Amino acid sequence: MPAVSVIVPNYNHARYLNQRLDSILQQTFRDFELIILDDCSTDNSREVIEQYRAHPQVTKIIFNETNAGTPFRQWQKGIAAASGKWMWIAESDDYADPHFLEKLLLLAESKPSAGIAYCGPLWVDDKGVAGKDLSSYHTSFFREGVEEVRTKLWYVCTIQNASSAIMRRDLAAEAVKDIGRYRACGDWIFYVKLLQRADLVFTEEKLSSFRYYHNNTSNWAEKEGLWVTEGVDLIRHLDFRKLKTTWNELKQILGFWINRTKTIRRKQRPGVWRTIVVTGIRYLLSGVR
């Protein structure tokens, strides 16, 4: 069994794939398998991927015959195929420093309760030129997972780039369930679920490059209202007993999501309201108060 399973879910990123895959295969840490998935790309991704089929560390190449419609179904498929203790979802348009795995594994293993270890990414454009650093954190830390959820993750996704993180596969296999129905917020919900079962360690060292400034996914998701209509579902997964959520904290959480309904279309609001009401009732029935 390899120490790490590296999962590369690709869709139409042929022009970045060589740099992505080479940056994985050139890692100083060598005990890993590489699983490549392609979601029925319409560019020449298949041709690029086939160049790597004979590499001894490429254990699986999976081509979809129809597009899944969401990257998170590819996450599910990749995690199911993985066998390592740790896993790295290496997005197909990003790339990494050669010491990425070596340093993050040392960091993770220094904190036995950690379920996620991640680094600060460089925020780059399509040419790899760094832009403004939009990272949530700039100083290294270790934190209980429930504390991260209780203070931050209920309203903002602080792990902004999956490529910058390694995660324990056993925990990821549970957390990834049901996220395949989301188009934008599956990763956010995934982290909320996982970090209620394990802790979080972060290094400020820039070991991964996040190709953010060419990507309009965030603008598309905002326009479609997905940050609200999908994002609100994360409160369904809050374990109030484990988080020791107070009544005032619950009011803050529900108040935030109530306020966010003002940013979406009227026809989208009933579903969000139902989630908010059900969460409030669930809290009252939990007996935490």
What does this structure look like?
The chain is built from 12 helices and 9 strands. With 289 residues, it is of the alpha/beta class. It has 2 domains: 212 residues, Spore Coat Polysaccharide Biosynthesis Protein SpsA, Chain A (Alpha-Beta Complex), CATH 3.90.550.10; 62 residues, no CATH class. Strands 1, 2, 3, 4, 5, 6, 7, 8 and 9 form a 9-stranded mixed beta sheet that branches. The N and C termini lie far apart (45 Å).
Summarize this entry quickly:
With 289 residues, the protein is α/β, with parallel strands linked by helices. The protein is 39% helix and 20% strand.
Structural key phrases:
289 residues; alpha/beta; Spore Coat Polysaccharide Biosynthesis Protein SpsA, Chain A; nine-stranded mixed β-sheet
What is the chain-wise order of helices and strands?
A: EHEHEHEEHEEHEHHEHHHHH
Q: Which CATH architecture of the largest domain would you pick?
A: Alpha-Beta Complex
- CATH level 4 superfamily of the largest domain: Spore Coat Polysaccharide Biosynthesis Protein SpsA, Chain A
* Secondary structure: number of strands: 9
Distance between the termini: 45 Å
Q: Class of the largest domain, according to the CATH hierarchy? A: Alpha Beta
Largest sheet geometry:
9 strands, mixed
CATH structural fold name of the largest domain? Spore Coat Polysaccharide Biosynthesis Protein SpsA, Chain A
Helix content: 25-40%
